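U., I forgot to send this yesterday:
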Amino acid sequence: MKAVHILDFSEWTFRDIITIWKSDQPIGLSEQTWNTVADYRSSLEEKIAKSSTPVYGINTGFGALCNQVIASEELSQLQINLVRSHACGTGPSIDVETCKLMLLLKIISLSKGNSCIRPELLQFLIQIYNEKIFPEIPERGSLGASGDLAPLAHMSLLCIGEGKIINTDGNVADLLKSRGIHPPMLRMKEGLALLNGTQYTLATLLNALYRSYSLFKIANITSALSIDAFNCTMDFLNEEIHLLRKQKGQIEVADTLRQLLSGSNIQFRSKISVQDPYSFRCIPQVHGATLDCLHYIEDIVTREINAVTDNPLMLSQQQVLSGGNFHAQPLALAADFLCISVAELASISERRIYQLINGSRGLPDFLTTDPGLNSGYMIVQYSAASLVSQNKQLCTPASVDSIVTSKGQEDHVSMGANAALKAMAVTERTGLVLAMEWMTTCRAWQLRGVEWKTGDKLQFMFQQYRELIPYREKDHIPSEEFEKTLEFLIHVNSPSD
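Result:
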């Protein structure tokens, strides 16, 4: 029997969530957590039964309809109608991994109790998570306030036996029944608790951040071999230079590059230039700045993982109050920041590709021994430049945009989901550019000859890579190797590395 990840009132870290998300283990709640969820629900039911005062989203309409009071016998139908009417997403479905993460984050938020859902509803969400029954969710449609309404509505359709399940056809209720699972339907407050929240934006941003840390490691690896292949002067990695700047990320990157190049004979080779281009000499400053940004974004993400982002909420004194915790502005700004910081890894990488193929430092034009008849890696740099240009366009911030909705009641939105989707797109393009740099620098290294020696880890990676993708002297189709190269780099630089 598999061990169970028990969710409780712990403050979960970014790495904790990655571990749970990437594992195949089921999840469950601690006894204390179940009791808290039940107590909050009982308190809400008691409060509503005793009071005739309207409470937003519980016995009223939603958004601009907040002053429409709903009869007590229609409160369940109100929640069902909410989920159905808000399932307005468009575009391709999100991938299984992001859907799984989104569901996990929603479970964690609801388990705090403040959203006042029934334990039965939370148990259903845990059950479909553990059974790997993931809803089909279109990627577009959220404004990032009042929460990720459209994506979370598509997720929540399963709770009423409707919607779609990824990689399956047929009636959802029948499919669930065949697995021994029965939709809990929705009662007072529950549809709103499911839809109000930032879990779609958060899951997308968290996924992009997870990828970005991997890309950061890859960028250091590829740039280290590029430094060696370009025969740079090593003065720029002097430790004291970086300590004088006092920027933590810069100091860490310089140290990483020194370690990667330890064992190289680069310092003993003759040099033809006193200073190197910025794309080599300023790697610690550029990569380091990205690392500092990633740490900032991780801090924002970690806070949101542990947050309650529903509305209204039951507070510790059993008050039910409306607020704005569903507004994803912190995530929107962080996602835009991620776009910019990761795009810079690709931007400086493309410049190193250019330097390696332009026929300087004793390397042949376009890294081919027979230029003219062969074009070598001329167009690899074109392709990288195209991706870098797209990244620049994607870095236009989404968080500065807002469109008035719901008759002016919801008059400022974050566009956090759009920002997070852009961040995912930037990571995809950056990964390909870094793969192109690795291909290029490996080709340059191949042309340097056996008398050149690099650091042990770089040498090992180069040899592993050549076993996967052998060197080809004549022109071939480089695009056939892009994805394979990226997969190789991700695998050898995984978090467990």
